[in-house]
User: What shape does this take?
Amino acid sequence: MANMLDYLDWRGDLSMAKDPFNEVDNLILAELSYIPFNQYMPGADSGESVLLKDVGKAFFEDHPLEESAEAWNKSPQVLKSAMKMNRFKNMKLRWFVDEFDQENEQQLSIITFELEDGTAYVAFRGTDGTLIGWKEDFNMAYLFDTPGQKRAAEYLNEHFTNYDRPIRLGGHSKGGNFAMYAGMFCDPAVKEKVQEIYSNDGPGFHDEVMATDFYKETKDKIISIIPESSVVGLLLENQLNHILVKSTEDGFKQHDPLSWRVKRTKFVRAPELSSSSALLDTTLTQWLGTLDIKERKIFVDSLFDTIAASGAMTIDEMNSNPVKCYSAIIKASAKLSKKKQKVISDAFGKLAKTGREVFMENMQTKVEGIVEEIKKPKGDKEEKIEEKSKEKPKEKPEPAAT
Assistant: This one.
């Protein structure tokens, strides 16, 4: 089944002057933001730009595709294809920033693509494999804004106040959240230039953000695209009408954008959210509602403190030696204060209780629906049988005379 790589093979020969920017183009650019462009790009303050085909050539001279695909998942495959295609190869890349601040729990990377149609697309990278990157995601549950979100808005103000092109914002996962936040809280002069904001399976916001005029003023520009079994894209609040797309994967693996099915210039639509995703969304939303802001902070900080005590700095490091890592986590959790242990225990207890309640409520609704369906067709069927029995049987035609 076709994905964005197939789209590049099929549509890549057409420039955007001949075929306008579309939702699949958005995902390709969001995926390219995961490439570590650091040593191949001029500094963000220089104002200089480079062409995608030139950056790609330099990148693959240092990192063969097999090696880079193992290190950076599937993004290099997208770059390898895009850098050869008329649609993308002559794009200008500029203002690349890559910041990692462990003390402030910030992981941020942004790059601007200037397209041939006279617009620019600002791509915000999603969560990388670092624990700090994941911690920042969890911090959104209790913070109005994170350092990374604020820095994303600052980036727009720094580079686009006097910019003369219309701009699109977008990103995958946390990058989608950063794109939305930056579009909401950038300066008015920049906000006027923002045409569209793409959130590709990006999480939502603290409920206080949803109540602001900034959100209400920007909401109509946001295009939220999530797979039918989304997990990340339904976290926290967003109040958006999502575009649901089909994926070749199941469950959490649908978060991988290369699994999203493509037909021509659009993603293949899914009719509705999967039952498992809807159930998880309801469970997590109700569970967070049982925790006040202070409890959320203690829970998140304590959880990641115990993980950090294992010595792992990345998800890969955790997975490389899971027994040793989880053993260290258990030991570290035992050293937490009684108060923090109680918050974590209570939080997981509330999660389990909420999960059971939502599941039972969902099952009850399904059973009631089944009962109603059984009742209705049965009566109709009996009436139709009775009516049919009253019909005069048709006579067989007599054989033709010979």
